[in-house]
Amino acid sequence: MSTVTTASRRQGRGGRERILAAAARLFATQGINATGMEQIAEQAPVSKRTLYAHFRTKSDLVIAHLQDLASTGHTLESALIREDIPARERILALFVPPAADAAPVRGCPFIDAAAEFPDPRSAVHSYAREQKLLMVRLVTALVTELGCREPAALAEQLVTLADGAASRAMVLSDPDYGRHARAAAEVLLENALPGTS
């Protein structure tokens, strides 16, 4: 077997993962719409044929990217499903700053994607909406577990704080911006617990 053939086959392995990794880097630094499919193929590196074999459209790639972030725990929502920490701490984990080496500060990838695909009927916007609705359901379950009053309303308030903090962190390039929202979340939780007025 020739060296060229061996190298070509090696480069062909893991193409999907390389495409997703390249897309994640480029989407984070440039934004989704500013990143072309050709640029992603070049950065992966894969041929355009391989790229389109894995992802027929850019929307397919964006949704796969968002699904990958969600499944690997790289979203705000990932803290909510951890069973190794108590319910209250899971909620407050929504406001923990990203890792120090997580640059640039991008905020919530679902909000970012919805902003770049503003048509609510688009597949990307629909997927982002589903994830934000899932987030409020998860928080509702946690505040219900804590015995908080009016859990549905409280959950909406908490996710609004989390999403707002993530957005402001991105705009201000301040990864620790969530500390302000965390302080407000602690007050909301304290006031909603049984036995408090």
TrEMBL record:
Residue range(s) of DNA binding per entry: 36-55
Highest taxon in the source lineage: Bacteria
UniProt keywords, alphabetically: DNA-binding
Residue span, HTH tetR-type domain: 13-73
InterPro entries recorded: Homeodomain-like_sf, HTH-type_TetR-like_transc_reg, HTH_TetR, Tet_transcr_reg_TetR-rel_C_sf
PANTHER family: HTH-TYPE TRANSCRIPTIONAL REGULATOR RUTR, HTH-TYPE TRANSCRIPTIONAL REPRESSOR BDCR
Protein name: TetR family transcriptional regulator
